[in-house]
Each structure stands twice: as C-alpha cells, then as structure tokens.
Amino acid sequence: MINLINILVFLSSFLILITFLVYFHELGHYLIARLFKVSVEKFSIGFGKPLHQWKTKNGTIWSLGRIPLGGYVKFSEIDNEKNITNSYITNGNKYFNTIPVFQRILVVLAGPLFNFILAIFIFASLSFTLGTYRVDSIVGEVIDGSPADKAGFLIGDRILTMDNKDVSDFNDLRRYIALRSGSNIITKIERNESNFELIIKPERKFEKDLIGGVSSSGKIGIGLSDPIAITKLEYNFFEAIAYGYKELISSISMTGYYIGRVIKGEEDGKELGSIIKIATVSGKVAVDAVNGNTTIPDQLKELSLRLLTIGASLSVALGVANLMPIPMLDGGHLVYYGYEAIVGRPLSQKKQEIGFQLGLAILFTLFVVLTLNDISYVSSIFS
C-alpha cells in the first residue's frame, strides 16, 4: 500500500509540475497574441487525442491531451497558396502572419519571459514568507593536497571575493567554484585583519548525488568553521522582489556559463538533464516529503515548498532552453523574425522548412544524448 502511494505521489508530482510550467509558458504566447488581436485556433496542454476540450467565445479550443508532456498554442495563419489578402478573420481578429514583425517577436518572447516572471515570483514568495540563510565563507578545514591547500589557504581565513565577485556567502562561493574546475580563480581573503590575494584552481570531483546519479563539479577542498556562522535574512515585499530578480539573473548566468563551457569542451554536458532526470528529482523529493515523520499538514507544506523550489529552477531552465537559436524552438523563430526585420522580407518558405528539419534533427539528437546521460537514474526511479 505504501509503495502504491509513493508511486502515485511520484508520478502526480512530476506531471503536475511539468504541466504547470508548460501551461505558464504557453499562456505567455497566448495572452500577448490576444493582446494584438491574433486569432488562436487551439491551446493544448499535452499531445495526442484530447481527453477533454472546450471552445471559448473567442473561438479558441482549449484541450487536454492524453500525453501530458509539453503543449502548444496554434495561431490562425494565412495559407499563401490560397492567395488570401484579407488580414482579418472575424470580429477584428487577425492572422498571426499578417501582424507586424515586431509584434510577432513579442509573442514569441512572451513564453520564455513568462517562465522568468514565474521564477521571480516563486523565489520572491519563498524569501518573503520563509526568509533565507546566509552562511559566512570562513574556512574551518583545509584538506591535505587539495587545491585550497596548494593555494595556501589557512583555517580561519574569510573568503571575500573570487574574480572580484562577492562570495562572502558560502552559498554563492559553492555555486561559483562548481562551474570552474580547471580554471584559475583570483581569490581575495581576509586573514588576521589583513587582505590577501591567492590563486586557486578548483578540481573536478565526481560524486553520487541524492537521487541516484553521478554528478561532477568543481571543488577546492575546504570545510566550514565550527560552529558555522549562520545568519537568517528576512525581506519586505520590495526586497523579496529584488531577491527573486537576483536569483533569476544568477540562474540564467550559471546556465549560460555552463553551456558555454560545454561548447568549448571544458564540461562534458552531463549535468544537463532530460525528462528522466526532471521526473526523478521532482518525484523523489515529493516522496521524501510525504514520508517524513510529521503530520499530514506538515508533509503537504514540505511537499509544496520542495516542488516550488524545483519549479523555480525548472522554469528558468525552460525559458533559457526555448531561447536557444534552434528552429522549432522560440529562439529559432526569433532568428527568422530578426532576419525579416533586418532584410524587410521573410526568409523563403523552402529555407524555413530546411531550418525546421535541421532543428528537428538537432532536438532529437539532444534528446537521445541527454537521455543516455540520465540512464543511471532509471533504476533510481524504482528504488
């Protein structure tokens, strides 16, 4: 009975999370399209034969597909072969491909932008209601032979900056070095009321993560002071919004930096996850939450907090991924519309079709590679 409940929690948590993120992304496209009076034929969450659908007064069919992974918004467009010259359909609604190119760009941008707004909202809400914790970057241990030992770090050193970036909060320090294995980092420390600069090169470490896979990241070989210097930070409404925006920018920056290192061959790309990894992360943290030795209300609260935290990160990832300049994705459409805006005419239909075929091949290849990366999580799902 307990295993059955765990399976239901695992699956429902993943499906609810991914459905909500996709819905919010597509809602961005839909709302901005309707702002410009574009006719929307269908708004679908999921693919395949509809489980349920209904039609609204503005003519849009809202649908729930049988395969609850992904979704789409279908705009009404002129079929050029039919030589339709009227830009309007009915009641002032327009064909998507007849509105100005800058409006089409805004419609496409709205999907990723809504994902970023959602992430800010979640980060801000969590910081406003729960606060955050600052952990001072004070060295309490230096592992023999580690990068920190070789660089000359000593117990009691307070780490201030790395490459002029403030890392006095250990949370920021950990995230900064995680993506910089093999790179020299100029580090400013405070020792006995004096400041020094040291150069440290993080080394890549492979370790089993909490959900059954193997991950790698940069490590420098230090431990925190004992007792750990922790400060709880609380935020008012405006401070929480600022914190949410800061976390968004940090997440986008880390994602972009990591992808850049993958392209340059400095990372193997295995930290990029497929649908398997997303399902494992969301499902297992949900199962852990409901299996806690607490009351049901506390379990539900913990479940909500964990899924919200994961949802914020996934929302950023979804927004960034969709902005990649690959045909079939929002970024690919932006490339086409950017060309049209500069040249004054759209790319030929034949060239667009070639681009979409190439984009489909790239996406399929990425799907296969990422799935192979996460194959180790398959057994973890059932453990």
Commentary on this structure:
With about 375 residues, this protein is of the alpha+beta class. The chain folds into two domains: about 1-115 and about 270-380, no CATH class; about 130-235, PDZ domain (Pdz3 Domain). It contains ten helices and twelve strands. It has helices spanning about 1-35, 100-130, 145-150, 170-180, 235-265, 275-290, 295-320, 330-345, 350-375, 375-380, and strands at about 40-55, 60-75, 130-135, 140, 160, 165, 185-190, 195-200, 205-210, 215-220, 220-225, 230-235. The chain has a four-stranded antiparallel β-sheet. The protein has a two-stranded antiparallel ribbon with strand order 1-2. Helix 1 (about 1-35) crosses helix 2, helix 1 (about 1-35) crosses helix 7 and helix 5 crosses helix 7 (about 295-320). The longest helix is centred in the N-terminal third of the chain and has 34 residues, at about 1-35. It is globular, with a radius of gyration of 24 Å.
